[in-house]
Amino acid sequence: MTTIHSPLRRAFVIFTIVLAGELIFSLPFHVVRFFRPTFLEVFNLTNTQLGDIFGLYGILAMLVYFPGGPLADRFSARKLMMISLLLTASGSLYFAQIPSASSLGFLFAFWGVTTIFLFWAAMIKLTRIWGGAHAQGKAFAILDGGRGLVAAAAATGAVAILTLFVPDGIDTDLASKRQGIQSVIYYYGAITTFAAFIVFLVIPKESGVQSTDDDGEQSSIKHDFSIVLKRPVVWLQGMIVLTAYCGYKGLDYFGLYLTNVLDFGAVQSAQTVAYISYTRVFAALCAGFLADKIGIGKTVLITFSALVVCYALFATSPVQALPQFLVLANIIVTFVLVFAVRAIYFALLEESKIADTRTGAAVGVISVVGYTPDIFLAPVAGRLIDANPGVVGFSHLFIMLGLFSAIGAISTYLLIRRVKALRAA
């Protein structure tokens, strides 16, 4: 990557990575995450159908994580990221036409390619190089915390747009809800396009390009993958990302939880989730600070362990009989913990001593394993909720998420032991 010495220019670069890194996912994820009840009604979908649509996104994404990694080691991140943003934004034009469930599946499959293939590994590598050898926790905390701030700010604007058509507490007709969702979609398409132009203006032309190994010799894709695939720490990191990402995907259901279990209105539910999402900045920065102080692995282990407790409380407590503020407090803590572990799990690349020149290859392998929840979590969660409407269905969902967090804690413990062994060797 082109060396950037100016603090101001460095600040602009990380800001742009953050902005692009969140808005690339706004169309396929934000519209559903923040407006799920209204979205399901307008598109005439069940949770099961929507879960299957997200499964198509996940299948295509998984297929392109692997080949996308080496591209980030050989081509300019600026070019890769800009193309991805523009292609993703173009999908908003079709999305706003409120296509059928089958057509929506093709759109999400398209987004599975455009949001990942050229973009994901380039963003991770750019962030790692920006952070240098001694501030990986800080770099990835800024990335994820900043992405959280972008997500919450963009959602706040989207909620304001929806409110123009769907005032909360008023029995609004379906046509108005349709107009509201369409306006929200166009809004997200516009800001995604805006992010593409910011990337073109700010990111250095040769950003992220490194085609030699640590000894200065030319590195081949086959050679990079052969080395990465043989390292147990890479597979353990893949499992850590998988279990943490299950928790992150689980956050998409809290808006529906507020509506179906706590009787929140559609707009009130969206506003609550949007406001809680602002905690992502606080969570990420605290996680990054703690990771640089006590170690990334230890911080991830503590976070997973706390998540197990939170999900157990959701699954076993009589939530409808409890004061609402206690339930909301547990929701907030869950969001904070999920955001914290998500903020720093890729910082484990530095702790595991993965070479800079093989970052793209490692990210490709880790992501193929780690983001498989894009395939299975939404279909499974949708069926759990639809099969047992109300508290029971959500209890089953929280039990599943708690089990994944427990597996994440075990994987992290094994990784810590492996890293210690490598250092002692």
UniProtKB/TrEMBL annotation:
Keywords: Membrane, Transmembrane, Transmembrane helix. It is found in: Endomembrane system. It comes from the Bacteria. Pfam families: MFS_1. GO terms for biological process: phosphate ion transmembrane transport. It is a multi-pass membrane protein. Residues 14-420 form the Major facilitator superfamily (MFS) profile domain. The keyword Transmembrane helix applies. One of its GO terms (cellular component) is membrane. GO terms for molecular function: glucose 6-phosphate:phosphate antiporter activity. This is Sugar phosphate permease. It comes from Thalassotalea agarivorans.
